[in-house]
Amino acid sequence: MAHQQLAAILNIRGAPLWSRAFYWTRGLPRYRAHHREHLEEVRRRLRRLPLIAIAGAGYDGAGVSACVRSGRAAGLLIAQLTAR
Ligand SMILES: Cc1cc2nc3c(=O)[nH]c(=O)nc-3n(C[C@H](O)[C@H](O)[C@H](O)COP(=O)(O)OP(=O)(O)OC[C@H]3O[C@@H](n4cnc5c(N)ncnc54)[C@H](O)[C@@H]3O)c2cc1C
């Protein structure tokens, strides 16, 4: 399928020399129901502890841009807590 689609985009004429399919069965997190509410509760509880922020695909979205946003927000939170 990948070859078929790329061949059209990149104008590839020959067949692949080799190909292999990889299955990333746990590659992306799958959030449970009420994930957002659970996360808000976890973050609320973490506020009781000093200098802890959570970020990444397991929390705020699995795409790279969501992970970057999540990491920046965590960094900002730590900076604010440190400045107090
Ligand atoms: C196969 C695949 C393809 C994907 N393709 C896309 C795509 O095309 N576009 C897109 O937007 N997203 C894509 N994603 C999703 C996206 O890449 C991930 O969700 C994102 O990179 C996760 O970022 P993260 O910072 O949460 O975790 P990670 O990028 O996994 O970073 C976690 C880091 O923590 C380190 N670490 C782990 N344990 C410890 C420890 N005990 N001590 C110190 N360090 C530790 C790891 O080495 C790693 O560097 C893809 C994901 C997969 C698996």
What's this entry about, in short?
With 84 residues, this protein is mainly α. The protein has helices at residues 2-10, 35-46, 57-60, 64-83. Residues 24, 27-28, 56-57, 62-64, 67 line the site of flavin-adenine dinucleotide.
- Treating each run of at least 4 consecutive H or I residues as one helix, how many helices? 4
Q: Could you list the spans in which at least 5 consecutive residues all have pLDDT below 50? A: none
Task: Using the alpha-carbon principal axes, give the shape.
Answer: elongated
**Percent in strands:** under 5%
- Identify the quaternary structure here: single chain
Order of helices and strands: HHHH
Helix content: 40-55%
For the residues shown, what is the average pLDDT? Answer: 94
* Largest sheet report: none
Number of strands: 0
Structure ligands:
flavin-adenine dinucleotide
- Helix/sheet category: mainly alpha
Structural Rg: 20 Å
